[in-house]
Amino acid sequence: MDDLKYGTRNKRGDWAPSEPVQYAPLFLFPTRIVAILKWLPDYFFPWNTIFAASAVAYWAWVIPPIETMQALGIGWIAWLYAVNAISVLFFYGAFELHLYVLKRQENRFKYNGKFPAEQKSKAFWFESQNIDNVLRTFLSGVTIWTAIEVAMLWAYANGHAPWLSFAENPWTLAIVALIVPIIHEFHFFCIHRLIHTPFLYKWVHSVHHNSVNPSPWSSLSMHPVEHLLYFGTAFYHLILPSSPILMLYQLHYAGFGAIPGHVGFDKVEVGEDKLVDSHAYAHYLHHKYFEVNYGDALIPLDRWFGTWHDGSQEGEARMQERYRKRKEKLAARKARVEMGGAAE
User: Fold this and answer.
1) Where are the bilayer-spanning segments (predicted)?
2) Please, what is the Cα angle at 84 between 78 and 90, to 5 degrees?
3) How far apart are the first and last CA of the chain?
4) pLDDT tens digits, residue range 105-138?
5) How far apart (Å, rounded) are the C-alpha atoms in residues 121 and 130?
6) Is-contact 233 187, C-beta < 8 A?
7) Looking at 191-249, which runs of residues are DSSP E strands?
């Protein structure tokens, strides 16, 4: 498939889409009903449908009986960890195998023309991005994911979280299901800005940003503190009128949903003529430039806070202008400090 029909490739082999990243029309004003209706299929398919279906499957075949979860026990906790780990291994591993091991679409639609395995760095354990990312995913990521899952299921089983039945509250639960991605986006933006503060970035978030050229296993390669903040999105369901299935959907949206943003390819080829959009470019630009696109493109939070980069020349100019103003402020502050010291 010819990826140059959809974008351009520079001399380094890096690919970029021809069209700038667009925000979802959901929060554009004045409201554009036709645009929203055209966008809705992309909201549901394929990713949100996959994550919601996985939550239903977990509830049907994985989650223990309510009576079992009323007391914390090593047996059912270990069972949930094992299922989460196996699910991550197969889901993440499928993308890794297809795109990075077998390289079935070579570097077509790949933002960074190089592959992580080709580069060694002391920033990673064993100087390998892949080994480092895999170990952090399973040692910390899946562990904290499971711990929060266990805590929430225990809370539901013991009546500490609002649990609505679908039979009695179908519309309320439908609305909560619809806004699960919005909750995730809001939460992710807030904690992302928090961990980009100097202290937390140095000691926590820099672990994730070591993967400047992200791949599937980079998705959950984080410091344990960031894992706790990231999967903390499930705690909204302690106060929302919700259900365990929707809480699982929220967790799966975070856990499995990290893949599209870090897959490293704009489109995944399925067969000879089918393409699935990853919608990863906005987050790829965050890994590339660090201080843009703290959210994705569902809610225009970055636009509202002046940190949006859509991949266009205008977006690049806005970013450079923001950097220039910040340097001027830092230079002015330094000059005032030096003048104060000289006066003494």
Assistant:
1) 44-64, 76-102, 138-157, 169-191
2) 135
3) 69
4) 999 999 999 999 888 999 999 999 999 999 999 9
5) 11
6) yes
7) none
